[in-house]
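Hi everyone, sorry if this is the wrong subforum. Our group has a chain we'd like a structural model of before ordering constructs, and none of us has done structure prediction before. Sequence below.
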Amino acid sequence: MNDKKLVLVVDDNKENLKVLGSILKENGLSPAFAQNGAKALNAIKMELPDLILLDIMMPDMDGFEVCKRLKQNAATQDIPVIFMTAKTEKEDVIQGLELGAVDYVTKPFNRQELMTRVNTHLKLKATEEKLKQAIAAKFSPSSRMI
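Answer:
Right subforum, don't worry. Here is the predicted structure as C-alpha cells:
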C-alpha cells in the first residue's frame, strides 16, 4: 500500500509541471500531472488526489471553472485546492477563495512557503477525515447501547 499523498498539479506550462513535480517528490509526495482543466477532471475520475495545485490561466477551461466543477461534485468537493498563479490582483484571490480554494499562491513562488502550505492543507484534510470517521462511529447504530 502506497501511503504517499497524491498531489495533482494542473498547469499548461510543462516547465512548471517539471519543477513542481520535483519539489513534491523531494518532499515525499506523489505528484500527478494534467496540462489542462479537462484532463485534470478526467484524471480525478480515475484517482482522487489528496490535494490539487491548480493554475488559473489555461486555455479552454481556466482554473476557476475547474475549481467550480470540483466543488459542485460530492465526490470531489472536499479535495483541497490551492491556486498557483501569476494572477496577483486581490479580486482574483478573492474569487479563487470564494470558489472554494483553501489557499492561493502567486508565481513566482517560494519553494519552502509552497511546501509549508501544501503540508498544512494535507494535515488539515487528514484531521477532518479522522473527525468525520469518529463522528460516524459514535453515531452508528452498532455503537448505541440499549
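For your construct planning: The mean pLDDT is 93. The two ends are 39 Å apart (CA to CA).
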